[in-house]
């Protein structure tokens, strides 16, 4: 591995790192070519990010760097950061970023998402956009990850999540096969994700939007420091914590 990325002191090279390295040691070479067929909703998430000029973006569980590279190309004025627990995935990400000529715009760090320290990793405490794409379903301590992600949002920041959903409108047979297959990769859909996000929104005075997509195959969520479409200067007269207005908007597709 090139060793260009930083390492969080809080990083515990423990079971999750070993498991992810084992899963992805070979898979990483076919990851981008195969996952585009079933990690649905990633491009929609990236398209809806609308980062402000000069924004800093963090992806938690960045894998091969596929989303970071798209992000950096779509929003040329952003500085992107990615963390992952797997050195195998980071190695692939590092090479892809190099090939894309984006070394100056994308920084990588090795850390466990449940305990990462953004200052130690990247020298900054907050980000304008935080992305978690199909990583929570692989992290047993996913609730801690949500807390950490919400804590490192800037005053105008938002957290954008896409992951496997509750499959509510999918045929029963398809669900059985899908869940067996996901289990092979240690993937568990987080069925209470929307409810947990609503709790965090209430506790921290954030705004929440969730949307079930593709018959419940995917859940998309945005946890926002400001109501959607409102900039910080316009938000000054809006109710702020400790009397937060939580907007919980659930759109079923
Ligand atoms: C399914 S991949 C998603 C990669 C990328 N976000 C995407 O959308 O293509 C899940 C990623 O989460 C990472 N991951 C799993 N557990 C983690 C943890 N505890 N801390 C940080 N990253 C973790 C894995 O190594 C893997 O790269």
The tally of beta strands, per DSSP, is 9
Shape: globular
CATH superfamily: Vaccinia Virus protein VP39
Could you name the CATH class? Alpha Beta
Q: What is the H/E string?
A: EHHHEHEHEHEHEHHEEE
Molecules bound to protein: S-adenosylmethionine
Query: Helicity level, as a percent range?
Result: 25-40%
Strand content bin: 15-25%
Return the structural class: alpha/beta
Reported CATH architecture: 3-Layer(aba) Sandwich
Sheet having the most strands: 9 strands, mixed
With strands numbered from the N-terminus, the spatial order across the biggest sheet is: 1-4-3-2-5-6-8-7-9
Using the CA coordinates, give the radius of gyration: 18 Å
Q: What count of structural domains?
A: 1
Q: Calculate the terminal CA-CA distance, rounded to whole Å.
A: 42 Å
**pLDDT averaged residue by residue:** 86
Contiguous runs where pLDDT drops below 50 for at least 5 residues: 8-12, 232-253
CATH topology name: Rossmann fold
Task: Give me the number of helical elements.
Answer: 9
């Amino acid at each position: 591995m090139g060793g260009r990325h930083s390492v969080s002191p809080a990083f515990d090279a423990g079971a999750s790192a070993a498991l992810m390295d084992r899963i992805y040691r070979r898979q990483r070479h076919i990851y981008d070519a195969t996952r585009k067929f079933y990690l649905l909703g990633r491009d929609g998430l990236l398209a809806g990010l609308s980062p402000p000029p000069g924004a800093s973006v963090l992806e938690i569980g960045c894998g091969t760097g596929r989303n970071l590279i798209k992000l950096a190309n779509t929003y040329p004025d952003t500085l992107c950061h990615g963390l992952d627990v797997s050195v195998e995935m980071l190695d692939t990400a590092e090479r892809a970023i190099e090939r894309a000529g984006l070394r100056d715009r994308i920084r990588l760090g090795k850390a466990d998402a449940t305990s990462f320290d953004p200052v130690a990793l990247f020298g900054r405490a907050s980000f304008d956009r935080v992305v978690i794409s199909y990583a929570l379903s692989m992290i047993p301590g996913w609730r801690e990850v949500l807390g950490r992600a919400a804590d490192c949002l800037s005053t105008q920041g938002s957290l954008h999540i896409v992951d496997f959903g509750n499959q509510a409108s999918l045929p029963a047979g398809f669900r059985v096969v899908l869940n067996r297959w996901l289990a092979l990769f240690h993937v568990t859909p987080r069925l209470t994700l929307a409810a947990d996000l609503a709790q965090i929104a209430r506790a921290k005075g954030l705004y929440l939007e969730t949307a079930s997509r593709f018959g419940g195959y995917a859940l998309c969520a945005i946890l926002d420091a400001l109501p959607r479409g409102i900039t910080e200067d316009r938000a000054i007269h809006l109710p702020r914590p400790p009397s937060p207005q939580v907007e919980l908007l659930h759109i079923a597709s």
